Amino acid sequence: MISLFAVPTYPRRQSLILDNGLLMNRYIVILIAGLVLGCTPQSADPVPDGVSAEVMDLSGTALPQTLASAHLPNPVLIHPKVISGGLPESDEAFQELVDLGVKTIISVDGAKPDVAAARKFSLRYVHLPHGYDGIPDQRVKELAKAVRDLEGPIYIHCHHGKHRSPAAASVACVSAGLTPPSQAIAVLQVAGTSPNYRGLFQAADRAVPLEQALLDELQVEFRETVQVPPMAEAMVAIEHTQDHLKQIAAAGWKTPADHADLDPAHTALLMREHFTELLRTDAAGEQSDAFRQMLVSSQQAAGELETALLHWDASSGEAVPPSVEQSAKRIADNCKSCHVRFRDVPP
Question: Is 98 exposed, middle or buried (0-12, 13-18, 19+ CB in 10 A)?
Fold first, then answer.
């Protein structure tokens, strides 16, 4: 009998479609996405750059393949056992995972996973975070063992599902022998990973199948949550608050209709406090002058943004003060410059 999510392994560059079992598994997975969830692959396009023509399912769709979804950010089907995507933030998102048959969720984000929400849906959470600058060798081995040994299907996510999670899922699948190295970069391309994340592309480019004996011997405690370094934890908080500021900006610097909990001035206050607290840490003190100057600049800009929003009466019909856009842009520009110089480059 063919198991729906059987996970055969393949040597490097060998075709993924070697037996009817895997072929049928891939076809059923895609049908599940469509018939159960309405989460179907997009219409078949020409094979993306870097995807071997042999990596196909019965419908002629190349894998990796983006899935349409109502509640999961940027889901990408990489292998019958592995889907990459963004953070599930609602009961509807967790239900979508259940409908897809997912049994295990792996977070590679620095934020603490919502273990309680996952348990409501009988889903297991595993926390294996890594940064934007690449994936350490030990983490590669742990991810490979996870996708090989944990109950699947497995959903691997970061925050937005565009950068860290596709890189992690790609490297894990190649290292575990589930997909060929020739497919690694294609996963990042389909997910929309920015080429600016050189460390993530480097990790995918260098991924090779690991010896099964090595994974057999590897001892890993797959924990629901792990403690991340203070700097990484602070950056997670800043990233989430920056997302909220973007939503507020899109709503004309008023509380978004679909996010009644977001008060513009208060969100700017939270951003200022994030930078203030980060500047107080030993971790920030160990960084370069240029890094700390960016933090100080962003702290000041967040304070100016808060003041401008407090003094602007959004209900008066007056135009948004220029200082609001200027302060917000300064924060965004500092974040982008900091990422390029200090976060996204390989060590």
Answer: middle
Q: Does residue 96 register a pLDDT over 50?
A: yes
pLDDT at residue 78, rounded to an integer? 95
Is the domain defined by 230-343 classed in CATH 1.20.120? yes
Q: What is the pTM of this model?
A: 0.62
What are the residue ranges spanned by the domains of the chain?
A: 20-217, 230-343
pLDDT tens by residue, 322-342:
999 999 999 999 888 887 777
Q: Which residues pair with 228 in a beta bridge?
A: none
pLDDT in tens, 207-228: 999 999 999 999 999 999 887 7
Burial class (CB in 10 A: 0-12, 13-18, 19+), 68: middle
Show Cβ contacts of residue 94 under 8 Å, excluding neighbours closer than 6 positions.
88, 117, 118, 120, 121, 123
Which of 207, 224, 129 shows the shortest CA–CA distance to 170?
207
Q: Is there a contact between 251 and 225 (Cβ–Cβ < 8 Å)?
A: no
C-alpha 200/C-alpha 167 separation (Å) is 6
CATH of domain 20-217: 3.90.190.10
The CA distance from 323 to 154, in Å, is 46
User: Partners of 125 in the beta sheet?
Assistant: 105
Same fold: 20-217 with 230-343 = no
At residue 18, the pLDDT reads 30
Q: Which of 185, 186, 190 is nearest to 206 (CA)?
A: 185
pLDDT exceeds cutoff 60 at 95: yes
